[in-house]
Fold this sequence. Notes:
Elements: H1 3-17, E1 22-28, H2 46-54, E2 56-62, H3 68-77, H4 105-110, E3 115-120, E4 139-142, E5 154-156, E6 159-162, H5 170-185, E7 190-195, H6 216-238, E8 245-251, H7 273-276, E9 277-283, E10 292-294, E11 298-299, H8 303-311, H9 326-329, E12 341-345, E13 348-354, E14 357-364, H10 371-376, E15 379-389, H11 405-419, H12 424-435
Parallel strand pairs: 1-7, 1-8, 2-10, 2-11, 3-4, 3-7
Antiparallel strand pairs: 2-9, 4-5, 5-6, 8-9, 12-13, 13-14, 14-15
Helix pairs in contact: 5-6
Amino acid sequence: MTRRDFLAAAGVALQRAAPPPNLVIILCDDLGYGDLASYGGAHKTPNLDAFAREGMRFTHYISANPVCSPSRAALLTGRYPTRVGVPRVLGPLDATGLNLDETTLAQSLKTSKYKTACIGKWHLGRPTEYLPTNRGFDEYFGIPYSNDMTPRVLMRNLEVIEDETDVNLLTKRYTERAVDFIDRSKGEPFFLYLAHTMPHIPLGASPQFRGTSPLGLFGDVIRELDWSVGEIVKTLSRNGLEKNTLVLFTSDNGPWYQGSPGRLRGRKTSTFEGGVREPFLARLPGRIPAGKVCSSLVSALDFTPTFLKLSGELASGKPMDGIDIWPLLSGKQQSLDRDVLLYFDNVHLQCARWGRWKLHVSRYDRSYYSTVARDTRTNYPLVKPELYDVTLDVDEGCDVAADHPDIVSHMVARIEELLAGFPQAIQKAWVDTKARKNVETRSGARPRPGR
């Protein structure tokens, strides 16, 4: 064996001998791409600014769906929400949730002896069998759906401990609970899923932060979320866990009534980038290079396969739609080749993304958000698919399909191939969409220069 071979083998052996990392996901609700200072936002976020400097910041992370429940289903399974029974937002009275035959990230990590906790918003099914402690989490503390749904109960595991909880104290209480979990779990590998309720409306901030921002209550809320991240990082440092804990920070979808998508077009409920592209920060000192910015396309679908690879746990029998992005996180690669990603809203395919290219293939006849509107919208195919280079055209305003017919043809063909593997109801929705009368472009796209 040569010296080089010996050193390589020794490196592999040391890597295998290293304990599996602790895993922390901090997920905000309705935080926009332009809400953090590190993404050009007006709010002061010193802890998140430091987080970005000490880790990696992503500029093309998409949440897999423009609304709450589906995006969370994707994050915790690595599979499209239209595969796993959560194509739409779930309510307190829904009798279903994330399909019981799906394996969550928490369930997979339990087989690797991880201690697991879900703190905050769940929103993947209210009936007992769908709640976190029956889906792989050892403990749960939070509201089982959105804070604008009633009754706004607070739960500990399977027990309702408050019939109408105070939204002003949620961020503080969730953070205290998360800190306590880390303190109690430092002797074994753990997975913490901290799913903040904020800044989803109705907004709430604790007395410590209320009135501290010149940007109003929304600004107060962002400041408290920033404080919360700081508390998590400090707790990891105090327990000597910083260098063995991967922490990811992001949001489930774009901003709703308040908040900023930055320069991106669209907001929550829209499959324009402002509805699905989110801030995404990753931190693991010594293993994720500090101060790096990654422009490669990544998705919420990628969390589960990446975590399973790092923990040494094999994926469940069902195929993942996400990929392992550790080569990006570790700085070993600047980009990854990946398949076309699909953008759904409810059961309907709207767009597809392939690298820098985004193809719009259908659109609803109504785009504003209300229960009635979303129940009565009709999805129509576009007369001609619209192609945007979203690395240059951030507001998706200049359709360049005519300049790149090969890209359009490839993406259209791949859409059809991928959809053939989805549940029958999703395939039927696509067939029904294509059977409707085509509509002229509804995006207001500007003509290309010279036309």
